[in-house]
Write a structure and sequence with these properties.
The protein is of the alpha+beta class. The chain has three domains: 167 residues, 3-Layer(bba) Sandwich (FAD/NAD(P)-binding domain), CATH 3.50.50; 168 residues, D-Amino Acid Oxidase, subunit A, domain 2 (D-Amino Acid Oxidase, Chain A, domain 2, 2-Layer Sandwich), CATH 3.30.9.10; 91 residues, no CATH class. Helices cover 31% and strands 25% of the residues. The chain has 14 helices and 20 strands. Strands 3, 4, 5, 6, 11, 12, 13, 14, 15 and 16 form a ten-stranded mixed β-sheet that branches. Helix 12 packs across helix 13. The chain is globular and about 70 Å long.
């Protein structure tokens, strides 16, 4: 289904969106709906960058209301309080919209926020923060918050294993939601953008931007085949996330820095069954956020947060980061006695935060940068856009474009609903530990959803990669199931399966004895 790159040679678009993470995909979707001719290009697969590496939470916005070392930070800097309230409001609005329009893509969890006598915050501050969020929450998707005494909370599975019960002062409980794999949200948005008339193409790199009169000339390269084409656009939206600076620099010279990346890793473990759907949010010993989050019968801990200056194309959890996070998990829940061998797999990502010399860990508020001051008129970039507010990011970018350029086509309605696979009750599941992804779904996605590899299919189309085994043992059968669709011969089919397994080992550090029964 991928559009042949040569067919784009010489074409002109109203807007070219570079980067099809969840914010870029949403921008393309909303622009196409508003009546603009849109080209969306992504140098990897849709949603394969930071969008797929997050903590997978549809945050209620509580973290935005955390002032830092002291509540007086907001009093000293009123603008930070305004920003915090704006971001919290956007989070609650996004929460409601996703729960109502794509319920298949989210699931509710019960989260618990413990306060010890040495915690960063006091019980009254947590009560105040939850109260503010509850005021922002619409009645049809409530926060469902309450404060628990330590005695009340001790019988709750997982929560009962917290450290230092003699020093616990209170526990806040509230309803949080989780994305049922955010990269699928991205694929849904891309496919809807295409339905609305956008031209979409993954594995297509924007290699050079050149200003020609009132338009931008964009040189494109096919990452897989090596083909090239040149297109033009009146406006360019640089939505490339952690690659934004790299894209800006393709216009010649070195542009002012826009991105500061902070790295976060996660570790997945198997906890007792009675812990299912129970989560904990707290701070580690460095006063950084730490979560224990349920996922498909397992739990994961994370994230970490360190400034990342490395290769944005090679991000993975390193040994020292894993050991550090494991130590924090055991400090939080000492009764678990987790060991390195208990880790099923890991993942790592880098947050595309806004660069600000005054903020060594980056600026977290979503910002849109007009790059005219950087010598790039007609180019806009978005930084620090979290997954949870991607729909409002798309509408914000569309409103900015509307002030500069009239649509060239009639407007249409956006479809936010989750794309469903055809009903195939007789098709067997791809993996035994998560029966919702079926081989028939895999074949349908191969035919209709722009996937080019088994990794694309398993992780970003059917979700079988985000399971306890990560589909390790199923790789050969999965490759064989789609070989006819792609025209793979036996050698290519074996290579796809092997490449998939190598991806699991290299990027996710998969524990193969847990993934493949034959290796136990």
């Amino acid at each position: 289904m991928r559009v042949d790159l040569s067919s784009l040679q010489g074409r002109t678009f109203d807007v070219c969106v570079i980067g099809a993470g969840v914010n870029g995909a949403s921008a393309a979707q909303h622009l196409a709906a508003a009546g603009y001719s849109v080209l969306l290009v992504e140098k990897g697969d849709y949603g394969s960058g930071s969008s797929s590496r997050s903590s997978r939470l549809l945050h209620c916005g509580l973290r935005y209301l955390a002032p830092g070392a002291s509540i007086f930070e907001f009093l000293r800097h009123p603008s930070r309080l305004q920003t915090a309230l704006r971001m919290a409001r956007l989070a609650m609005e996004a929460r409601r919209q996703l729960v109502q329009t794509a319920p298949e893509r989210v699931r509710p969890l019960q989260f618990h926020f413990p306060i010890w006598d040495d915690s960063v915050y006091r019980p009254w501050q947590l009560r105040l923060g939850l109260g503010l969020l509850a005021q922002l929450a619409p009645g049809d998707v409530p926060l469902g918050h309450r404060m628990l005494s330590p005695a009340e909370a001790r019988s709750i599975p997982l929560v009962g294993g917290l450290r230092d019960w003699d020093r616990l002062q209170a526990i806040g409980a509230f309803c949080e939601y989780q994305f049922e794999w955010p990269e699928r949200l991205c694929v849904d948005a891309v496919l809807d953008a295409e339905r609305l008339g956008a031209v979409v193409r993954n594995y297509t790199s924007a290699t050079k931007l050149t200003r020609r009169g009132e338009q931008w000339e964009i040189e494109l390269g096919d990452v897989l085949a090596g083909d090239r084409a040149t297109v033009s656009a009146t406006l360019v939206l640089n939505m490339a996330g952690i690659w934004i600076d790299r894209v800006n620099n393709t216009s010649g010279g070195t542009r002012a820095r826009k991105i500061l990346g902070t790295k976060g890793i996660h570790i997945m473990v198997q906890l007792p069954p009675d812990c299912a759907d129970k989560g904990v949010v707290t701070y580690n010993r460095r006063k950084e956020p730490l979560y224990c989050i349920p996922w498909r019968g397992m739990h994961y801990f994370g994230p970490t947060e360190t400034v990342y200056e490395g290769n944005p194309d090679d991000i993975r959890a390193e040994d020292d980061e894993i050991e550090d996070l494991l130590a924090e998990a055991n400090h939080l829940l000492p009764s678990l006695k987790l060991r390195r061998d208990d880790i099923l797999f890991t993942w790592a990502g880098v947050r595309p935060l806004s660069y600000d010399p005054a903020l060594p860990m980056g600026k977290r508020s979503r910002d849109v940068h007009d790059l005219a001051a950087d010598g790039m008129p007609g180019v806009l970039a978005m930084t620090a856009g979290p997954v949870m507010t991607h729909r409002s990011a798309g509408t914000e970018m569309t409103e900015i474009v509307r002030k500069r350029l009239a649509p060239s086509r009639p407007a249409q309605a956006v479809d936010y609903s989750a794309r469903r696979f055809p009903d195939n009750q007789n098709s067997p599941p791809i993996v035994d530990d998560w029966t919702e992804a079926k081989f028939a779904d895999l074949v349908h996605a191969a035919r209709h959803e722009h996937a080019t590899s088994l990794v694309d299919l398993m992780f970003r189309r059917v979700g079988a990669g985000w399971t306890k085994t990560m589909g390790h043992a199923a790789a050969d059968r999965a490759a064989e199931a789609v070989a006819t669709v792609y025209g793979w011969d036996q050698a290519r089919t074996r290579r796809e399966a092997q490449s998939y397994r190598e991806h699991l080992l290299a990027l996710h550090r998969l524990r193969t004895d847990a993934a493949d029964p034959l290796r136990r």
